[in-house]
Amino acid sequence: MAIPPQAMPEQDARERARNMNEVALGYTAEMAKAEASRCLQCPSKPCMQGCPVAVNIPGFLAKAAEGDFAGALRVIRETSLLPAVCGRVCPQEKQCQKFCTMGKLLKDVEKSVAIGRVERFCADLARENGTEEPVERAPRTSRRVAVIGSGPASITCAADCAKAGHDVTVFEAFHKCGGVLVYGIPEFRLPKAIVRHEIDGLKSLGVEIDNNFVVGRTRKLRDLLEKDGFDAVFVGTGAGLPKFMNIEGENLNGVFSANEYLTRANLMKAYEEGRADTPFWHGKKVAVLGGGNVAMDASRMALRLGAERVYLIYRRSLDEMPARREEIHHAKEEGVEFHMLENAKRILGDDKGFVNGIECLRYELGEPDASGRRSPVAIPGSEFTLDVDTVVVAVGNASNPLIPATTEGLEVNKRGNIVVDPETNMTSIPGVFAGGDIVLGAATVILAMGEGRRAAAGINAYLAKK
User: Fold this and answer.
1) Does some domain include residue 60?
2) What is the pLDDT of residue 441?
3) 206 close to 184: Cβ distance less than 8 angstroms
4) pLDDT band at 443 (very low <50, low <70, confident <90, very high)
5) pTM above the 0.90 mark?
6) Which of 197, 287, 314, 386 has the fewest CB atoms nearer than 10 Å to its CB?
7) 367 lies in a domain?
8) How deeply is 173 buried, as exposed, middle or buried, from its count of CB atoms within 10 A (0-12, 13-18, 19+)?
9) What span, in angstroms and rounded, lies between the C-alpha atoms of 36 and 113?
10) Mean pLDDT of the chain
């Protein structure tokens, strides 16, 4: 307990707000050893109950504390294929670190052992030194598995099926693989070179990737089973359908879903002006509606795209905000202006149909809602106007509707999520499995990975019986 928590080195806030380089600079070897040494090696391993893929956290921290970073990575990779990704984007404070005994002793989850930061260091070191150990693959079974989508759930499922000896083909609608890792999460939080490296790891397992292939349009799901000779299919198409607020002015020029705004910037690199694959709207005064991680990403991206002022408008207080504390802290440091207990009432436009303002209402907190958070209640007569030329709506996403809409007999719930067996992740169609946000709704990378792992186990068991 005498070892102080190791702070993560970061870029200066004023400099990073105008560049796309990664904000967090990573630990040194000595910092990683010191942080790992804070682990109390609890026999009950409480931290593991917060990890959706059950990484042996005390096991890898013990190796890292000794300076055996290769051994630590070996332990991590027993259950997690994406340590460099998870070490950066997982909400550890709500998962493994939430249950850390050190954090409880110090009465502060931020003083828990920084599990993700040590995980990131171990993965980065091996990648940068070229010392990653190859993944073993079982003898070929001659069974064929189709994986639809290439996000975290699909990557995990494809890898586990390939390791079991099956021939795996990934069908990806976009021209680049990675799903939300490439189109949703900005470069300054997750460098895309890391995602490409993980996709290369999939290819080294023999996984084939077919880009620009939209299942439901290019080919129907059932055709993969009935005409193309696949023995099983995994659906991991995510939650890519943006939600809107259905308020006046949402169809004005200058209003974007966060999905489109971030996809143009992340996947198509709109910030590389003159070289980008897409045009981009250069807003100078940007309002972002929402309080989750996507809203933080959009707000911080707006600064990097040249916005002079960025307003983050959220109808609850800071305590109810679902975004990671780290992302909120970074956004504030970089200059995002937080408007708490406020929400958009209507978006205003000029006579040419372009955004020129947003009318908001002030709120107060009432009784808790079903989620336990206090419900926001509008204050009558509290309207006010902000001068903006861009509005980004980041109030959530629904499951991708294409495959359910084009696949007869595929059961979905009232929210459009595919219904699966909780033990195997098989859908209502024999041989078709699903996982990730298409099942859960918008969730985290690590939860999607857990879904992909469970589905792969279900597929492997199904094919063994077959």
Assistant:
1) yes
2) 84
3) no
4) confident
5) yes
6) 197
7) yes
8) buried
9) 7
10) 93
Q: Determine the 3-state secondary structure of 278 from DSSP.
A: coil
Contact 127, 201 (CB under 8 A): no
Long-range contacts for 164-167 (Cβ within 8 Å, ≥24 apart)?
164/138, 164/456, 164/460, 165/137, 165/138, 165/139, 165/140, 165/141, 166/140, 166/141, 166/231, 166/459, 166/460, 166/463, 167/140, 167/142, 167/143, 167/206, 167/208
> Do 236 and 249 reside in the same domain of the chain?
no
Percent of the chain with pLDDT over 90: 83
pLDDT tens readout for residues 248-273: 999 999 999 999 999 988 888 877 87
387 and 411 both lie in a single domain = no
DSSP symbol at 353: S
223 CB contacts (<8 Å, ≥6 apart)? none
Residues 233 and 318 placed together within one structural domain of the fold: no
| Residue 277 reports pLDDT greater than 80 | no
- Please give the Cα distance from 97 to 162 (Å, whole number): 31
CB 249 within 8 A of CB 349: yes
Same domain, 188 and 43: no
String of DSSP letters for 398-457: E---HHHHHSTT--B-TTSPBP--TTT-B-SSTTEEE-THHHHSS--HHHHHHHHHHHHH
Structural domain harbouring 121: 21-129
Q: Are residues 387 and 460 in the same domain?
A: no
Residues 52 and 193 both lie in one domain: no
Residue 128's pLDDT band (cuts 50, 70, 90) = very high
CATH of the domain at 201: 3.50.50.60
Same-domain check for residues 324 and 381: yes
Q: Provide CB contacts within 8 A for 200, sequence distance 6+.
A: none
Side-chain-facing half-sphere of 288: CA atoms under 13 Å? 31
> What mean pLDDT do residues 137-161 have?
95
Domain boundary among 373, 396, 419: 396
Would you state the structure tokens that stand for residue 365, as one six-digit string? 């907190």
Q: Cα–Cα distance between 359 and 405 in angstroms, integer? A: 37
Instruction: Return the residue matching tokens 């079991």.
Output: 164
Q: How far apart are CA 381 and CA 383, in angstroms?
A: 6
The total number of structural domains that make up the chain? 3
Q: Are residues 115 and 71 in the same domain?
A: yes
Residue 356: both structure tokens together: 């020129």
C-alpha pair distances (Å), 162 with each of 237, 243, 318: 19, 35, 44
Is 195 domain-assigned?
yes
- Which ranges constitute the DSSP H helices of 66-218? 69-76, 83-89, 101-105, 115-129, 152-163, 180-183, 192-204
